[in-house]
Design goal:
By secondary structure, this protein is mostly helical. It has a single domain, classed as Alpha Horseshoe (Leucine-rich Repeat Variant), CATH 1.25.10. It contains nine helices and no strands.
């Protein structure tokens, strides 16, 4: 915002863990492939240069879920599978909808077109937050196959959430308005 001032609501860690709603579209590209938290400020902070490395096993990335997540697999987790897989870990903090929202954003930012089928399936998720962010991610992966465009059109026709509807419309526009309006 200004020298020595920080808007914490724009922090990747805040957005991926604490924020419960829709992540503003203008901030999504800055999230890159971060799905949970962020260590950038820890890495660049001059106060951390002299800190000792953690030696406790519970801080090791192999404890719990590991250092990476399969983003496509995440999108397939229902509530029960989410609770079973992440019980006892910090990954329950954003709740299922938040973690899947974050996975969709990361997939859109990565540009991995192998994610298209998983994102299309996420258009039918029980959570409007997940559906909307999955649509946004699909828009980032344009050009899309006709099956994905068709799935977005079908999702839009039955979508009850105004926010998710807006995300789907925006994604369809990004993917090629001429193809979906006809």
């Amino acid at each position: 915002m200004a020298p020595y001032q920080l808007d914490a609501t724009r922090c990747i860690s805040y957005l991926t863990i604490e924020h419960r709603g829709t992540i503003p579209a203008e901030l999504r590209p800055y999230m890159g492939d971060w799905v949970f938290g962020c260590d950038i400020c820890e890495e660049v902070c001059p106060w951390n240069r002299a800190r000792p490395q953690a030696t406790h096993r519970e801080f090791d990335s192999s404890a719990g879920v590991g250092s990476t997540l399969d983003l496509i697999e995440l999108l397939s987790l229902d509530e029960a599978a989410f609770r079973e897989r992440f019980r006892g870990t910090a990954l329950t903090r954003p709740k299922r909808a938040g973690l899947l929202r974050n996975a969709a954003i990361a997939l859109g930012n990565l540009g991995d077109r192998t994610a298209v089928p998983a994102l299309v399936r996420a258009l039918t998720d029980e959570e409007p937050l997940v559906r909307g962010h999955a649509a946004w991610a699909l828009g980032q992966l344009a050009p899309l196959p006709d099956t994905a465009i068709k799935a977005m059109r079908e999702a839009l026709a039955i979508e009850m959430s105004m926010e998710a509807s807006g995300e789907i419309i925006s994604a369809l526009d990004t993917a090629g308005a001429q193809r979906w309006k006809s």
